[in-house]
Amino acid sequence: MAVYFLENLNAIDVLKTVGIGLILYPILTVIYNITLHPLSRFPGPLLWGCSRLRYMYSSWSGWLHSDVAALHEKYGNVVRVAPNELSFADPRVWEDIYSNRGSSPAFPKSPVWHGSTPGKPDSLANLISSKRHAAMRRKMEPGFTERAVGQQEEIVQGFVGLLMQKLKGKCEESDDGSAAVDVVKWFTFVTMDIITDLSFGESFHLLEKEELDDWVGVVVNSMRVFTIMATLRNYPWLNWLLQKLIPASARRKADWHWHTVMQKVDQRLAEDTRRPDFLSLWQRDDKGGDGLEKGHVYANAFIMTVAGSETSAGTLTGTLNKLLKHPEILERLTKEVRSRFAHETEITFAALKELPYLNAVMSEGLRVCSVVPGLTLPRITPPSGGIVCGYRVPGNIFVGVHVHSTMTGSRYFFESTEFRPERWLAEVNQDPSSPYFHDQRNGVQPFGIGPRSCIGKPLALAEMRLILARLVWTFDIGQAESEAGKVVWEDQRAFTVIDKKPFEVRLRPRVQ
Ligand code: HEM
Q: Which of 23, 120, 134, 443 is the one with CA 20 to 30 A from 367?
């Protein structure tokens, strides 16, 4: 029967059959996704659950974080945001997805979201195998401990000192002794100089040149490309097609970037130095023995420049943005810092750790102005499934925390979206009459938790405290009158990290 059918099939019939198949397949898939799919019982709009197109549209437009926040407001702590993906907004999600708990390991990353770059070695951030990741992380950890950060303080202080000097220079150039400066630019200069110095043994000298170079452009754009490529990997054929369409000039630029990394790392390794940068502190073994292989050193030195500058610069910008909207908080912070330090040389990493209000401001800045606000920490459930926030989730499903909703949800915080550093002060914990007593502060994990949490957290906190404290110690800070002085943090798009608009503030050196 089948042979007879095939013998009598002509080209037109074949085309018709393929055409009908091409039309029917997506229709049947959509019907399956909203009726029989194991996630069809989870709450969420049909448009998001029937195919991934709505998610991709939102992600590519840069509004995924706020679109999904609106869905959580409507549907609660779990939302189906794509046929095979659930978003969670609940403090319990951290432990359930990202932590190793007894015999249940943290859910793994998936190659769909954290794929390797063809032909390039893996870095800590995109290594999928938990075992290989743990081995790599062990070799890199000596570069990121509190002790290492203590050793790196002199390098960081040097750059922060230069930042203050440059900003004072801007004020001196003007007639009235004050200057409106775009802090996004200046925070990028200083954090990028710090991280490139630690990664390559020499900074990119952005503070000296006062301009962002090609490299920074590539790093900033790479977040956009990363976001688009990650969503495309859900459709391998479309991904394949777009890979083929990448223009030769873009490929040349990527090659140039990679060769620059290799060249800079090689140059630094050729020097006989004991400076406490990452390359000194990571365990290396050029022969492929019990240390990081050369390829992994290159890949990790590069990933540091992506992970270690945009994030800190964004958090500082967001925190300053909120401080300027709340002059009384800025005043209290300024008072704390100025009354504690008589001279700027006293402003050290160790001393800043002890300032309660500064640390409360930093914690609140990290909570309200998350630089990775949306679904940015995706994981996949093991084949046998798992329990997340009390829900039984089937196997091989993408799950993730919606960072913004978990850290600012009205169910978990008093005045949940307001910038209120008081909620972090130690006395709140002991005072049941405080409106913030019941805040679920354990849900605020801006650096993630578990085996894949942020390795750079001690450095990030130390450098951000130092930059903010030195700023309020040195300058009276006020709102700039320009349009760029009126940026509303929440009105910004995000491509994995917040896509920062220029933000100007007015600085005037304080009169002592
Ligand atoms: C405010 C600053 C920062 C924030 C909010 C932040 C946030 C995060 C988060 C949430 C993760 C976990 C990602 C995931 O689970 O998928 C992460 C991972 C990572 N961060 Fe950070 N980060 C910051 C600064 C830094 C700095 C300064 C460095 C480098 C010195 C750094 C290097 C990394 C690396 C390498 C990873 C991957 C770790 C792994 O997979 O083992 N970050 N970061």
A: 134
Is residue 185 in contact with ligand 1, taking CB distance under 6 Å?
A: no
Torsion of CA 307, 309, 314, 319, to 10 degrees: 120
CA-closest residue to ligand 1 atom 23: 311
DSSP state, 430?
Answer: T
The predicted-structure confidence for 118-128, as pLDDT tens digits, reads as follows: 788 999 999 99
Q: Give the domain ranges of the chain.
A: 1-36, 37-509
Residue 465 CA to ligand 1 center (angstroms) comes to 17
Degrees, nearest 5: CA angle 93-96-102: 155
Query: Nearest to residue 75, comparing CAs of 446, 448, 402?
Result: 402
Q: Does the beta carbon of 369 sit less than 6 angstroms from any atom of ligand 1?
A: no
Q: Is the CB of 386 under 6 A from ligand 1?
A: no
Which H helix or E strand runs over 507?
A: strand 504-509
453 lines ligand 1 (CB under 6 A): yes
Superfamily of chain region 37-509: Cytochrome P450 (1.10.630.10)
Pairing label, strands 398-401, 85-88: parallel
pLDDT digits (tens, 9 = 90+) for 332-390: 999 999 999 999 999 999 999 999 999 999 999 999 999 888 767 899 999 999 999 99
Q: pTM of whole model > 0.90?
A: yes
CA–CA dist 69, 253 (Å, integer): 36
The protein residue whose alpha carbon is closest to atom 37 in ligand 1 is 125
CA distance 108 to 91: 19
